[in-house]
TrEMBL record:
A Pfam family this chain is assigned to: PdaC
Species per Swiss-Prot/TrEMBL record: Maribacter hydrothermalis
Record protein name field: Deacetylase PdaC domain-containing protein
Signal peptide start-end: 1-18
InterPro entries referenced in this protein's UniProt entry, alphabetically: DUF3298, PdaC, PdaC/RsiV-like_sf
Parts forming coiled coils: none
Keyword Transmembrane part of the UniProt annotation: no
Domain DUF3298: 157-235
Keyword list, A-Z: Signal
Length: 247
């Protein structure tokens, strides 16, 4: 019986430790009543629970990103996601009233998922597709990285001990992945880095497989090439990171 009791205590200890390292979420789904020839909006994201600073930071960051994605005229006064959905639909209806023969129903699809979490870091990826007319819509990913201890959202500058040192590593891996000779200029095979110098994307996030660099369509290549994704294993990236990740 003594052995069983000690085993139970150990099991409860493991559960407690696990609870300290994870954040509680519930799914949040927002959709409009779509119909044929109507604008369609589908939003599915995790909502952080509790009244902690971290939960508030996560929910605020997600809300701000979604409002920005749905902001067609760049003069949005939306205070929350529901307001942003209404504004997006109204923007389409206003355009359709002015040009009924030229406008096509708009579409917005936004899905959020937790792609990494340990005791220090939590990362949410927003995958979105927005169509507001034209030849095609625009799809992208957006990483939101959070420091759990202080409940803060991390900017890119917060990720690295020395961004220039990390950039050298990233360029080396980028060239290897994209078959660019080591001593060749970064744009020598057709990429379009500004000033012909390698640069990091705005979108960088922690994932289970490594630190992921996500270059948007048009950012460094043509739209037809799609996004360029580079994943740097943690055993190579850790020495440059403020928050190293155990394998």
């Amino acid at each position: 019986m003594k052995l069983n009791f000690l085993s139970l205590l150990f099991f409860l200890f493991l559960i407690a430790c696990n609870n300290e390292e994870t954040t509680s979420f519930e799914p949040l789904s927002i959709t409009n009543n779509s119909c044929e020839d109507c604008t369609t909006v589908v939003i599915e994201i995790p909502k952080a629970l509790g009244k902690t600073k971290l939960s508030e930071t996560i929910n605020t960051a997600l809300q701000e990103e979604i409002i920005a994605l749905l902001n067609f005229d760049e003069i949005s006064h939306a205070q929350n996601i529901n307001n942003a959905v209404v504004a997006f639909i109204n923007d389409y209806e206003e355009l359709n009233n002015r040009f009924p023969e030229e406008s096509m129903p708009w579409e917005a699809s936004i899905h959020g998922s937790i792609v990494f979490e340990n005791k220090d870091i939590l990362t949410i990826k927003l995958e979105s597709y927005i169509f507001t007319g034209g030849a095609h819509g625009y799809g992208t990913n957006r990483f939101l990285n959070f420091e759990k201890k202080n409940g803060n959202e991390l900017d890119l500058k917060d990720l690295f001990k020395n961004e220039d040192d990390f950039k050298l590593l990233a360029e080396s891996i980028f060239k290897q992945q994209e078959n660019i000779p080591t001593n060749a200029e970064i744009n020598s095979t057709g990429f379009m880095f500004e000033t012909e110098v390698f640069s990091l994307p705005d979108n960088i996030g922690y994932t289970e497989n490594g630190l992921q660099l996500f270059y948007e369509p048009y950012e460094i290549a043509s739209f037809a090439d799609g996004p360029i994704i580079v994943t740097i294993p943690y055993n190579e990236a850790n020495k440059h990171l403020n928050f190293s990740i155990l394998p």
